[in-house]
Write a structure and sequence with these properties.
Layout lengths: L11 E3 L2 H10 L8 H9 L22 E5 L8 H4 L8 H20 L10 E12 L10 E10 L3 E12 L2 E15 L16 H23 L9 H13 L17 E3 L4 E7 L13 H20 L4 E10 L8 E12 L2 E12 L4 E13 L6 E3 L3 H19 L1
Parallel strand pairs: 1-2, 7-13
Antiparallel strand pairs: 2-4, 3-6, 3-9, 4-5, 5-6, 8-10, 9-12, 10-11, 11-12
Length: about 400
């Protein structure tokens, strides 16, 4: 298999073969019973790691370019896996495919022809953004995914992907996605260097600069997190205005709160779920597949938005999915979705996932997901009651502003 020399139509893969190709690159076992031996075998690959990024040859963007086909139209037997009971496409399955493709693109960038197996453990660190360019995904038309590396740090990689669907004789754009991947050693314990990226021409240079801007934006957002600093002056005014709107005019008491018309208390806009993480959902490193986590979080968030708006909402954007720690096989994964901001027809949903250890009763956050949905009608206003809920409201508003309004 010669990944880094493939270009054009030679990169065209059927969707189901992506996982198989990743297993071949890493040398992962296909049998759960063999996973411990496979992990032990990877430890010996540590001596293949570069001591410095300067020791690695620069790669071009086209070296990592991949095209993957999901033949929903030409191979009807595949449809059932991707269909909802409304005969629409399950977007959670699309998230799984995007995650697998982002990993394959990253391995294509770092591929070394002289090595039979890659010593790198490349995993998803962040879904920076997914923008929907059209809401309808047809269940009987072929889907094509394309993408390549657009920016590289010392140990991190940004992969941009596009999804289009064949309809009326041509492929039409459906969504654009930006994933950030991180490179680790064979045991996935410490960072490992990746090949530098050499842009060719003004268009690629623009993509690379956009990657630099994305990194700076993420640092800025992290610095301004409401978990670290107080809200801005304008945000404090919003919180106070929400508080005043819920005061009981008869008692004029700080304790007495009244729900305004066409509104829902934030406490009443939650939906929770639990997943037992079985080996079937493992990735090539025998931890729970990030795409599976995204699918479960999306489906819970969609169900919450559906219940809140009283209709089947459309996804508008996925924003800032942070993978804080891996989820081990056998974990009890607790998912909690919260409608945290609304505006007109839009519903902003935050899904928090954590691993619960029943033996120690400890809870550890693994992921935070942000989804923006649109209803076919105006939805009730979400109203925070506590200070903590007000911070969730402001955080939801920030994510809404940087996805929809931007």
């Amino acid at each position: 298999m010669n990944i880094n020399t493939h270009t054009g139509s030679d990169c065209f893969l059927p969707c189901f073969s992506v996982r198989n190709q990743l297993r071949e690159i890493v040398g992962a076992s296909t049998n759960w019973s063999d996973h411990q031996q496979a992990l032990a075998d990877r430890v010996s690959l540590s001596n293949m790691l570069a001591k410095s990024q300067n020791d690695l040859p620069a790669k071009r963007m086209k070296d990592s370019y991949r095209e993957v086909l999901l033949p929903l139209g030409s191979e009807p037997q595949l449809r059932e896996k991707y269909l909802t009971f409304h005969n629409t496409v399950r977007f959670g399955r699309i998230l799984e495919d995007l995650d697998s493709l982002a990993v394959l693109i990253s391995y294509s960038h770092t591929y070394n022809e002289e090595l039979k197996r890659s010593p790198l453990s490349i995993v998803t660190a962040l879904v920076d953004k997914i923008d929907m360019r059209q809401h309808t995904i047809y269940p009987d038309c072929d889907i094509k995914f394309t993408g390549h590396v657009t920016w590289v740090g010392k140990t991190s990689i940004e992969a941009k992907m596009h999804m289009s669907q064949f309809r009326n004789g041509a492929y039409a754009p459906v969504l654009d996605a930006t994933f950030v991947m991180v490179s680790r050693d064979p045991e996935n314990k410490r960072a490992a260097f990746v090949n530098p990226l050499k842009p060719e021409g003004p268009e690629e240079e623009k993509l690379f600069q956009q990657g630099e801007a994305n990194k700076s934006r993420r640092v800025e957002l992290s610095t301004a997190s409401l978990l670290k600093v107080a809200p801005a002056d304008e945000e404090r005014k919003i919180v106070h205005s929400l508080f005043l709107n819920t005061l009981d005019s008869k008692t004029v008491s700080f304790r007495s709160r009244v729900l305004p018309p066409s509104s829902v208390w934030m406490e009443d806009a939650k939906l929770k779920g639990l997943e037992i993480c079985h080996p079937q959902e493992r990735n090539i490193f025998n931890r729970i597949f990030g795409g599976f986590l995204m699918r479960k979080a999306y489906e819970l968030g969609w169900a919450n938005a559906c219940s809140y708006g009283g209709c089947r909402p459309n996804l508008v954007a996925v924003d800032d999915i942070l993978f804080q720690r891996p989820v081990e096989i056998g974990s009890l994964l607790m998912l909690s979705s919260q409608v945290c901001y609304t505006q007109g027809k839009y519903i902003q949903v935050r899904v928090h996932s954590e691993v619960f250890d029943p033996l120690t009763s400890q809870h550890n956050t693994t992921n935070v997901f942000h989804f923006t949905f649109a209803s076919d009608r105006d939805v009730p206003n979400i109203m925070p009651m506590t200070y903590g809920e007000s911070m969730l409201y402001l955080d939801g508003k920030r994510h809404f502003n940087q996805t929809v309004e931007s």
